[in-house]
Amino acid sequence: MWPLLLHCSRGADTPCSKKGVPVTYELPTSGQRIRFQRPDLPSLNEVAPHWEAARSAHWYSNGGPVLAAFSSAIERYLGSDLHAVPVNNATSGLMVALRALCGTGRGATVLMPSYTFAATATAAVWAGFTPAFVDVSEDHWHADPAMLQEAVERETPAALLLCSTYGVAPPRATVRSWSAIAEHANIPLIVDSAAGFGSRDECGNRLGGQADAEVFSFHATKPFAIGEGGLVTTRDPDIAVELRRAANFGFHNDRIVRSGVGMNAKMDDLHAAIGLAVLDRFDEVLKRRQGYGSRLSDAFSAAGLSPQPGMSAGAVQFLPLLCKTKEQRSRLLASADRRAIELRTYFSDPLHSMPAFSRYRKTTPLPVTESLAARIACLPIYSDMSAGVLGRIEQLSTDIQ
Ligand code: T4K
Questions:
Q1: Spatial CA neighbour of 167 closest among 96, 222, 98, 231
Q2: Candidate from 91, 110, 114, 117 with most ligand 1 atoms within 8 A of CB, to mutate
């Protein structure tokens, strides 16, 4: 059911405004329907103390005081001597990373999985590169190092743009192989960890240092949610300078744009203020999301559905579960529909099957990608799920046994 109209006459004694044009908000009236995501951003009261720092400095973007405080807080949170470059969303973060590390694309090939969100390939195309797709491993759903090695030899790519699929940390050995392949080919490794801010790898380290540049999303639907926003991290101070430059029109300190044309991918201070408020409670949010993920994953294991290895240490944007067969997935989706629960099937269709991307080369057949895409079902996860909501989702598992 959509929408509920909330009329808010400015001039009336409402929280909306003091005077002027009436404002109408269209709010979803979902009734009993369980939405796939239901973001919960901080209240204005929580954001206000941070925002006041921008107001008292009269500095709202282009590296204002709140943005600087947010960058430092993120660096302290991630640790490991990482440099943090906040950006206005992960898609532009990927474009900035590609341009900072590889210059203008001129159509050069970038290897990436097809089993990812459209933004990964979109960013490469907008930055001037040509995607070529590699398969993922059925063991962990991240790019398969053996396939990658073969593809690098054949395609001589300009960069590897690999993913922490669903924001879950790839096994350390896999990341080591990716790095070795990139290093041997003398090309940069960029990792799209969009949903992975706060995820930990098998050694307990937070993601952020897996590549020459790693990219996170702070979109409203992500566990670390500020509305629109993102982050690029790197260990290398020189790369950090290039990333900041690429996100700020390409300006050097003397405000001259030299070889590399940049873009405007800056995060503003209001989003940084929201980010500081999110950071205050993020560990608690992560703990809850991981708890819901484990509970639902256990409930569905009786029906033979399996989670991605490493999920329990992830930030758990939502819960992807692999059905035994595509028929079982169809039954699950139909049952969810009947019970008014919104499920999703990310990443189906995989990119190589989408019309906009099907012209790009598959470096090999992609059987694992196709098998995952045909059987994946993603369950809702929020930061605050009631026992009632969790119970209703669990009921689906009994429908498909
Ligand atoms: N790389 C990867 C691997 C990614 O997964 C993504 C984004 C990116 C890069 C790019 O990151 P950004 O440039 O966005 O920072 C959503 C997100 O918009 C997208 O950020 C995310 N991946 C993707 C996996 O999910 P949609 O188009 O599928 O979302 P949508 O609008 O259908 O909403 C999903 C659910 O959330 C629905 O139940 C509605 C609900 N919702 C959504 C919003 C925004 C709310 O209840 N409230 C809200 O404010 O892409």
A1: 222
A2: 117
Write the CB contacts of 189 (distance below 8 Å, at least 6 apart in sequence). Answer: 159, 160, 162, 178, 179, 182, 211, 212
Q: ∠368-347-284 over CA atoms, to 5°?
A: 115
Tokens of 56: 């008292």
pTM summary value: 0.96
Cβ distance 247 to 92 under 8 Å? yes
Give the whole-angstrom CA distance, residue 161 versus residue 211. 10
Helix H or strand E encompassing 378: strand 376-379
Question: Residue 1: which pLDDT band, with cuts at 50, 70 and 90?
Answer: very low
CA gap 67, 269 in Å, rounded: 5
**In angstroms, what is the span from residue 217 Cα to ligand 1's centroid?**
9
Task: Tell me how far apart the alpha carbons of residues 213 and 162 are, in angstroms, rounded to a whole number.
Answer: 11
Q: Is the CB of 216 under 6 A from ligand 1?
A: no
Q: What is the pLDDT of residue 20?
A: 80
Q: Is the CB of 194 under 6 A from ligand 1?
A: yes
Per-residue pLDDT reduced to its tens digit, 18-47: 668 888 887 776 678 999 999 999 999 999
363 lines ligand 1 (CB under 6 A): no
